[in-house]
Amino acid sequence: MLDLRFIRENQDLVKKALKDRNLKLDLDNIMRLDQERRNYLSEVEGLRSEQNKANDQIGALLKAKKDAKEKIFSMKAISEKTGELEDKLSLIEKELEQKILTIPNIPHLSVPIGEASNNKVVRSWGEPPKLDFKPVTHIELSQHLDIIDFPRATKITGSNFILYKGWGAKLERALINFMLDLHTKKHGYTEIFPPFLVNRASMTGTGQLPKLEEDMYRLKDDDLFLIPTAEVPVTNIFRDEVLEEGKLPIYYTAYTACFRREAGSYGKDTKGLIRVHQFDKVEMVKFVKPENSYDELEKLVHDAEDVLQALGIPYRVVMLSTQDLSFAASKCYDLEAYACGIDKWLEVSSCSNFESFQARRANIKFKKEDTKKLDFLHTLNGSGVALARTVIAILENYQQKDGTVLIPEALRPYFDGLRTITVNP
Hints:
Helix content is 39%, strand content 20%. By secondary structure, the protein is an alpha+beta fold. The protein has two domains: 4-100, Helix Hairpins (Orthogonal Bundle), CATH 1.10.287.40; 116-421, BirA Bifunctional Protein, domain 2 (2-Layer Sandwich), CATH 3.30.930. Helix 3 packs antiparallel against helix 4 (69-100). The longest helix has 37 residues, at 27-63. The two termini are 53 Å apart.
């Protein structure tokens, strides 16, 4: 959430940000509402001042044993008018608060302006595998090896859900454990295992609500949501809290299942594991001092890259343009892994700096050691990394001519030294 005073004093900047994001929002109407709120507030404060003076005068009259009826009658009229204005003020403040929640974050100056075609490839790592046979897709491999059962997943739940089995389930679990071990042992993150259901305040705090509610799974009888990412519960650990500056930065990593309705995915490629409604992900979340947040973003990206490098998966780092940027992010890098069977680059990680945007919404502050003043900290998060697209890249890039799949060396300790995925027994 942007600070209202900041919006008021930087309307041209906010309008430019909306234009760069290709979003239509009537900022002038919001500012008119803000002015109306300030007018009502000024009038209410004036009436309260009159009430206080009248109270003092009534007290003085009663103390002097004089008639105070006229003054009491006058004060009741002021009180009634004050109450009416306070009700109107309350309604305006609620409306204004909801409208401010629809204003996205300001993109960082380094972010390319324009649509997705303006995304900038920052660097790449590794080379696509050169196979001496025609590669097949992960769908064909999973059917041949009997490690993913798409038809039965559809029978159990519906389309675009996954049923891993045998070596497929083992691969999923190995990847999760490998990533958690890497981030906790090498990168200095503390492991968290959060709830998979969160309340409306948590979803609002990280920016999923109100904008993305249609893309979320919501419980019918409780105002709770299945999490779209561990970012939501982990960031909200410190909602409405004040942290000591000396405790920053704080790094958390968490495995969770993630649930997304993908309401806007009509017409997109939804075959196999490319776009599913439930998937596993290891997330990294940072709480940092404002002056360090962009250095922390670069470190975050490198932590995610370490995962792909250890797995030997070719990838590229892409800086997202303003129209491809998420609602809450000020700057974001995507990591795209290459999969040779479908011959595509697949997003497996998004690493974002939200600056103080989420911290304002979730009311997360820190106390400065020197001045003791409170300020909003900066939050960051990144996938470290997301499945199931990483599974696509492993199956397709490590496939062998005989239909088996080599297990990346970094995962072999989690397979008790096994080197190859063969047909499930």
